[in-house]
Amino acid sequence: MEILFSIMTAAFGVSIFLRNYCFKEKGDHRYRNMPKEDPVSIAVLIVIGLVGGMITAVLGTGADIIAFSVVALLYKVNEKVLNPTSDIIMALASVMGLFMRLLFFGGVHPDAAAGFPLAIPIVVIMAPLGAIAASKLQRGWVVKFLLLFIIVEVASTFYSLRLSALELFKTCCVFGACMVFYLVLAAIANKKEERKEALGNM
Fold this sequence. Notes:
Blueprint: H1 4-22, H2 39-59, H3 63-74, H4 79-104, H5 110-136, H6 139-161, H7 165-201
């Protein structure tokens, strides 16, 4: 279960790479905002919150990467805009998770409490600095740094876990399912874009 986050991240990284460097469409662009509120978009955001919350409850993270990946691929929102948004989601999920552990689940595990001081400088200092730096860069560089961090995270996870053949097979199956999910999102986004262009040319 601990590798699920890395699998989702790897699938998202591959889909972003394909989208930006292999199958980039002419005139492809990114938006700064989500589309106007409609029942479908609201339902999508609710599902993102529920699924991301369940994954975060198990792994300690996940809501941020799910929100980032779905909104980036399905609604083509600029990664520069999504980066600080993802940080805020991660921070809120962590705070809510901590309060729920303290109030309803008997407190924080000693191992987690021991590692808490190590996370403070990362969360308080480095995450905001990273968001500020990303806002100053061009979108292409943000995507490149994002892919670099995904490669480092996935490589370090696989190196530390040393999976057996069966575990590796299961990992590949989950990765394939995640890839299908992300590619479907990208295909839906393309169809929406084509429909919008067709209506605009009428």
